[in-house]
Every structure is written in structure tokens, then in C-alpha cells.
């Protein structure tokens, strides 16, 4: 290169300040890529001028000086020809290598690097990627998913023992990693050191009227340990309405051992509801009417942490270098809890006295008398475990720093075929199929796709939540959607059940479910503000083997009429279509307008209750309290969402910056519904619409009910404060959705 510089300098009169810039511009399917080669002397100045290809600038000290042309000898001519050829060759090689690097960037060699660098380490394009027709994308995916491939994957990932943090869990994690690397995906691991629960050296015990009910192997992780005694009281499913019916009968729960059926709500919610009414313990059993195919001796496993993640590092990640303070989650139960079998429960229910059950409580006779004494002993122990999340990424071509995440839990209490094996198989098969589409078929996703295999899902989405806590700032405005693959197949396709916000899905045989606290997507929405979706295909009844050691391939075959593989293919296509559409289109298909009805419904309910309370007890709420500002904030959000829809209709989809700006406005909506006025540590589920706590709109409504009933825990000043903060949270979301500051409709 020094010889070339010297030669060029000599050719052009030996001018010491000459500066040559070659700006090689290639049009690669609508994208401008510029490569510069600079040849300069020992001066550091840069020429200022145009950007033409092969443009040449001479900086002359005296513009009026007379230059004597160099003699055109054969030797000079040879140097000129040689230099010209050299420049052309170098320019061609640089242009080719730059073009080649962009083509292969999304399929990097497998490696283990930090998350942020793995996803966004290389910006691969600056222009709009050429669109493959959506029908072609769907056809490509369909052709790469088959029953036979899934059967092979089921065999590879089926395991009888892979509890979180065990050797079996690690073996499966390494298999997932190997699969990702085999497709050329960039991979990385994420390790956390968490506290999980295991049975103690002394077994848990339950006695009824002095008689031991039998051996217990099932348990509830994170239950309070110790013993509790009290008169048993049947509480149906342990829902709030169930316990209110007991109170309506003037039956107090103080000191009682509450016996409840499994189902309808999570174990943690049942225990929390009982603890609020001062029960001493909770026993949970599978009712034969709900668990028709489960034997009388089947043991149940689960957890009772009213939250997600490691409850001993609430709000921050359990990394090895984290300095753990002496703290614990407010969602940990304050009473003991234990599961019992159907046969054990029958020994209790068949001998109960006391009041008759409220009407509508099926298969419940007597509620229990003061003489029906039960003792519950829980000897579970905490165990420090290392868990590992495994990731792979397919990078986007336009916005590689924006990504959709597909995830599935890898661990299970036992075989866990429906709870973990199917989801993990769908995850790796989708990773294989989409990698092939990018590498072999010319599909170029605009945004990145991250595939995640979580550990410790059975303990309350511990692995996923620790990842969210560890990378909260990195995920902000980058992860635009999460698609959950847990438990996607539990029956044949008679119906599909969905729980999500605010993705819009059209289905001929589907029913919608409210978002539940024990759903794996709950922390993604309510803690991190990431729009998420859960779905599953069922036969119209609950698969009864979740949370048992009987969740095997044979039982899932029976529940699906031997259609496990075809249903897994269908689930993979469904999840794949959602993910691919989100990375294929110019604009994200997230319907922000769907929250309008949700907000208005809460506003109407709160307004009605406020007006009623002001009429009945005007001394509680002074006249200065008005719902007008909340209504105004609701109206601002509605207008902002309509304005965004108008901007989308009038946008130029080929304008990359405009599309990115609109997508950023869409992505901020879910995040901005997280109340900025509560601590993620004290109230991690900050989403005011689907989260939990006094800061939510439902919390405001419940607080009004408590005020009306003169509940001792009700506080007028606290209500007014939370009311104002919730109002401004909605207004702030509307302001963000509006976009530029001069477009905001701030009427408060």
C-alpha cells in the first residue's frame, strides 16, 4: 500500500497533500452500501466535496501556480496503468467483501457471547429489506415442519428426570444449544444462582382427628415451613367469591385449615386468599369431577409464591456476582400449605360436620365442624441451585436491534411431556425451520428472532423472570413481543385457548381467557411491558396431568387421540406465523386500539362506584374528587390511538425511518402502562391494566369496595393518591403514543 501511495503521488506531480477517496456504491436490492478507501499522505486533513465514484480532490497551495506537466515516458505510462489496475482491484475486493459480509451477517458462526452483543453486535443493513410475499413465507414454513421430524425431536428431548437445576436439566439445555449451533445461529447462555425448594429429610405429614392420612411425596414449593393445627373448613376452589360466601354465612376463617379443590386459579392465589382471612393452613386436592382421569393416589406438585422469579431476590437478578441483601418477596405465603391426594381428601370430606355448603358448590356436602381437627406439618428445605437459560438468535436485516422472543420451559417435576417436552420440541423445530428459510430460501426478516429455553419454569417462571430482571434496561424498546410455547398441546384441535395483550388473532375455533398470574407470559407483560401471547390447543377440558408425575407421552397420546405430532406441527405453524409476521412486515401488527375498551370499562366502573359512594357516604370522598380527569386521560388515549392509525394509513412503507418511528410508538404503549410511581421491587407487576396491586385500575375499584364496606384496611388519602397516579399513567401513555411533543393532547 505504501508503494501504491508513492506511485500515485508521483503520477499526480508528486503533490504531498493529495487525497483520493473512492466511494463505492452498490445497489443491493434497494439498499445503498458505501465503502470508502482513502489514500493520504502524512497530513491528517480530509477533503471536503462530493461523493462521486472515484472522485479525486487535489489540494494545491497556490491556485495560480503554474504546473509543469511530467514527461509521459514509457515508464510513467506503465506506472499509471499499474496504479489504475491496482486501484480497481482493491476497490472491487473491498466492495465484494462488504457485500458478502452483509449477506452472511444474520447467520453468524455459533459462539457464546453476551446477550446484547449476540443480538445487536452487527448492524447488517440500513435500508429496506426486499419483501418476500407473505403467502410464500407461510408456504416455506409449512414445508419445513412435519410429523416425522417432530417424532425425532420428541425422542431426543424426552426425559424422565429433568427438574430445574438437575443434571437432567443441564443435559437437555446442552442439547438445545447444540441444535441452535448446528443451524449456524449465534448462541449464548445465561446462568443464575437461585433458591429452589426440595422435600426435607423428614416427610411432610397431614393428620385428621389424630390419624395420619398417608405418605406424601407431592409438595408446594415456597410454602411456609413448620406445623399448623385447626378445624378444617371446606372452601370450594378458594376463590375470593367462595370465601365471601363463607363470610356471608358468618363463618370465620380465623385459625381454620382451609380445604380447597385444585383448579380455576393458581395454588399461590388460593393460599394468599386464605392467609388474608387469617386461616392457619391450606390443603389442596384434585376433585375427581375435575381430574376425571387421575387416580386417587396421584400426588400434586406446584409452588405458592404469589409472583414469579426467585422470591429471595425480588426485583433484581440472581447473578453470581449479585450482592444478595437479606430480603424476600412480599408474595411468599405466611401460612403452611400442602397438597393431598383425592383418596386422602375423601377421608376428610366423608366425615365432615357443620354447615351445609353454599348452593352451587358441586360435590361439597358439609363444610366442617369445630371438632374436625387437622394438623399439617411441612418440612421442605431451600436449596441453592444453578440454573441455565439457553439462547439462539436469527438476526434481522433492517432492524437487528429489535426482536421477537419465542420461549419454552425445559424443566418439569417428572417426565413433563406435555408441560416441557412438546414446547421445547416446538422451539427447536421452529429455530431449524426459520434458519433454513433464511439460509437456503432467501427469506430476509426485517427484525431479529430470539429463541429461549428457560429453566425453573415449574417454580414460577424463575429462569425467564431472572433474565427479565437482569436485562430490563437492555430489553426496553428492543424486545417487542414474546410468544410462549409452554403447554401448547394438551388435546386435539377442538378449540384453541388464548391469553394475550394486545396481539390480535383470528381463529374459527378459539376462546379467549383472562390473563392469569400463573401464566408464563405474566412477568413479560406486567413486569417488563412486553406484549405477549400464550396459546394452547385442547379438547375442551383441562389436561389433568400437569403438575403430576404422570405427564407422559402415553397419557398425552390418549388425550389427543394419538395426534401429538400433528398437533405439535399445528402449534409450531401457529406460533411461527405470528413470529414471522412480526419480523416480515414493515409495521408491527400490534393493535394498540384494543386497550380503549379495556380502559373505558374500568373508567365506567370506577365512576359508578365513586358516584355511589359520594351519595351514600359523602364524608368519605370530598367534592373535590372527580372522575373527569380520568375520563379525560381515557379520551386522550383514544384520540392518540386513532391518530396513530391515521399515521399508519398515510405512511410510506418504503421510508425506513418513518416505519421505525411508528413502530417505536407502538412498542412504547405496553411499557408505558407500567406505573412509574411504584417500585419494581415492592410491586413488580406494575401494569395498571393487567398487573396486580393497589396501583392498578382494578386495585382502585377494589379500594372503593373496601371504602364502601368500611374495611379497616381502606384509606381515603391512599385511594386519592393512587387515583391521581393511575390517571397520569394513562395520560403519559397517551402522550407517548401521540409521538412528537407538539402532537400531544394534554387536557389535564
Automatic annotation (TrEMBL):
The keyword Lipoprotein applies. It is found in: Cell membrane; Melanosome. Stearoylated. One of its GO terms (cellular component) is melanosome. GO terms for biological process: intracellular iron ion homeostasis; receptor internalization; transferrin transport. It holds the Pfam family PA. InterPro entries: PA_dom_sf, PA_domain, Peptidase_M28, Peptidase_M28B, TFR-like_dimer_dom, TFR-like_dimer_dom_sf. Residues 389-490 form the Peptidase M28 domain. Its main location: membrane. Residues 243-298 form the PA domain. GO terms for molecular function: transferrin receptor activity. It is a single-pass type II membrane protein. Residues 630-737 form the Transferrin receptor-like dimerisation domain. Keywords: Cell membrane, Endocytosis, Glycoprotein, Lipoprotein, Membrane, Palmitate, Receptor, Transmembrane, Transmembrane helix. SUPFAM superfamilies: PA domain, Transferrin receptor-like dimerisation domain, Zn-dependent exopeptidases. The keyword NADP does not apply. The chain crosses the membrane at residues 77-98. Belongs to the peptidase M28 family. M28B subfamily. Cellular uptake of iron occurs via receptor-mediated endocytosis of ligand-occupied transferrin receptor into specialized endosomes. Endosomal acidification leads to iron release. The apotransferrin-receptor complex is then recycled to the cell surface with a return to neutral pH and the concomitant loss of affinity of apotransferrin for its receptor. Transferrin receptor is necessary for development of erythrocytes and the nervous system. Acts as a lipid sensor that regulates mitochondrial fusion by regulating activation of the JNK pathway. Homodimer; disulfide-linked. PANTHER family: N-ACETYLATED-ALPHA-LINKED ACIDIC DIPEPTIDASE, TRANSFERRIN RECEPTOR PROTEIN 1. This is Transferrin receptor protein 1. It comes from Esox lucius. The gene is CPS1.
Amino acid at each position: 500500500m505504501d508503494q501504491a501511495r508513492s506511485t500515485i503521488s508521483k503520477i499526480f506531480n508528486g503533490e504531498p497533500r493529495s487525497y483520493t477517496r473512492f466511494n463505492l456504491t452498490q445497489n443491493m436490492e434497494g439498499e445503498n452500501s458505501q465503502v470508502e478507501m482513502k489514500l493520504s499522505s502524512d497530513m491528517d486533513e480530509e477533503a471536503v466535496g462530493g461523493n462521486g465514484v472515484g472522485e479525486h480532490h487535489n489540494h494545491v497551495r497556490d491556485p495560480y501556480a503554474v504546473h509543469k506537466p511530467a514527461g509521459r515516458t514509457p515508464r510513467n505510462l506503465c506506472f499509471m496503468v499499474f496504479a489504475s489496475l491496482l486501484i480497481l482491484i482493491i476497490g472491487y475486493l473491498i466492495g465484494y467483501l462488504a457485500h458478502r459480509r452483509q449477506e452472511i451477517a444474520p447467520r453468524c458462526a455459533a459462539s457464546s457471547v453476551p446477550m446484547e452483543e449476540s443480538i445487536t453486535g452487527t448492524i447488517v443493513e440500513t435500508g429496506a429489506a426486499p419483501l418476500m410475499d407473505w403467502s410464500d413465507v407461510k408456504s416455506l414454513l409449512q414445508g419445513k415442519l412435519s410429523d416425522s421430524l417432530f417424532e425425532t425431536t420428541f425422542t431426543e428431548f424426552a426425559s424422565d428426570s429433568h427438574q430445574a437445576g438437575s443434571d437432567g436439566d443441564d443435559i437437555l439445555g446442552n442439547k438445545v444449544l447444540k441444535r441452535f449451533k448446528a443451524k449456524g445461529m449465534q448462541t449464548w447462555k445465561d446462568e443464575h444462582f437461585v433458591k429452589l425448594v426440595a422435600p426435607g429429610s423428614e416427610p411432610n405429614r397431614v393428620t385428621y382427628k389424630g390419624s395420619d392420612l398417608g405418605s406424601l411425596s407431592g409438595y408446594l414449593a415456597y410454602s411456609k415451613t413448620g406445623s399448623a393445627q385447626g378445624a378444617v373448613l371446606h372452601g370450594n376452589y378458594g376463590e375470593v367469591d367462595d370465601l365471601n360466601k363463607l363470610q356471608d354465612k358468618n363463618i370465620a376463617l380465623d385459625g381454620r385449615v382451609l380445604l380447597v379443590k385444585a383448579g380455576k386459579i393458581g395454588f399461590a392465589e388460593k393460599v394468599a386468599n386464605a392467609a388474608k382471612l387469617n386461616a392457619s393452613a391450606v390443603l389442596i386436592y384434585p376433585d375427581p369431577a375435575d381430574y376425571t382421569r387421575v387416580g386417587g393416589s396421584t400426588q400434586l406438585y406446584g409452588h405458592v409464591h404469589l409472583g414469579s422469579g426467585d422470591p429471595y431476590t425480588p426485583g433484581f437478578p440472581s447473578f453470581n456476582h449479585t450482592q444478595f441483601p437479606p430480603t424476600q418477596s412480599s408474595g411468599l405465603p405466611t401460612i403452611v400449605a400442602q397438597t393431598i391426594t383425592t383418596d386422602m381428601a375423601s377421608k376428610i370430606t366423608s366425615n365432615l360436620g357443620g354447615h351445609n355448603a353454599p348452593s352451587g358448590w358441586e360435590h361439597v356436602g358439609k363444610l366442617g365442624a369445630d371438632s374436625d381437627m387437622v394438623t399439617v406439618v411441612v418440612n421442605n428445605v431451600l436449596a441453592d441451585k444453578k440454573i441455565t437459560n439457553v439462547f439462539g438468535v436469527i438476526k434481522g436485516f433492517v432492524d437487528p436491534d429489535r426482536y421477537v422472543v419465542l420461549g419454552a420451559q425445559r424443566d418439569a417435576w417428572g417426565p413433563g411431556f406435555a408441560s416441557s417436552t412438546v414446547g421445547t420440541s416446538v422451539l427447536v423445530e421452529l429455530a431449524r425451520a426459520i434458519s433454513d428459510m433464511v439460509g437456503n430460501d432467501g427469506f430476509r426478516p426485517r427484525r431479529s428472532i430470539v429463541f429461549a429455553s428457560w429453566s425453573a419454569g415449574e417454580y414460577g417462571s424463575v429462569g425467564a423472570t431472572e433474565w427479565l430482571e437482569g436485562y430490563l434496561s437492555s430489553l426496553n424498546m428492543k424486545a417487542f413481543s414474546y410468544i410462549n410455547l409452554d403447554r401448547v398441546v394438551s388435546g386435539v384441535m377442538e378449540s384453541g385457548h388464548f391469553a394475550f395483550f394486545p396481539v390480535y388473532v383470528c381463529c374459527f375455533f378459539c376462546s379467549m381467557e383472562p390473563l392469569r398470574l400463573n401464566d408464563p407470559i405474566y412477568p413479560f407483560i406486567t413486569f417488563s411491558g412486553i406484549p405477549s401471547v400464550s396459546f394452547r390447543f385442547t379438547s375442551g377440558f383441562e389436561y389433568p396431568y400437569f403438575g403430576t408425575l404422570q405427564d407422559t407421552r402415553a397419557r398425552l397420546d390418549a388425550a389427543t387421540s394419538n395426534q401429538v405430532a400433528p398437533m405439535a406441527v399445528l402449534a409450531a405453524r401457529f406460533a411461527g406465523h405470528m413470529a414471522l409476521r412480526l419480523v416480515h412486515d414493515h409495521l408491527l401488527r400490534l393493535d394498540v386500539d384494543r386497550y380503549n375498551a379495556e380502559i373505558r370499562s374500568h373508567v365506567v366502573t370506577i365512576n359508578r362506584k365513586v358516584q355511589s359512594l359520594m351519595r351514600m357516604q359523602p364524608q368519605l370522598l370530598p367534592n373535590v374528587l372527580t372522575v373527569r380527569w380520568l375520563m379525560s386521560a381515557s379520551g386522550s388515549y383514544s384520540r392518540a390511538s386513532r391518530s396513530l392509525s391515521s399515521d399508519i394509513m398515510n405512511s410510506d412503507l418504503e421510508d425506513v425511518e418513518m416505519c421505525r418511528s411508528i413502530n417505536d410508538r407502538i412498542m412504547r404503549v405496553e411499557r408505558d402502562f407500567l406505573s412509574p410511581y411504584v417500585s419494581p421491587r415492592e410491586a413488580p407487576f406494575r401494569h395498571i391494566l393487567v398487573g396486580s396491586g393497589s396501583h392498578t385500575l382494578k386495585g382502585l375499584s377494589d379500594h372503593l369496595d373496601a371504602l364502601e364496606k368500611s374495611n379497616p384496611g381502606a384509606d381515603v388519602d391512599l385511594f386519592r393518591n393512587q387515583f391521581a397516579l393511575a390517571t397520569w399513567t394513562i395520560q403519559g401513555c397517551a402522550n407517548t403514543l401521540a409521538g412528537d411533543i407538539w402532537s400531544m393532547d394534554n387536557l389535564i
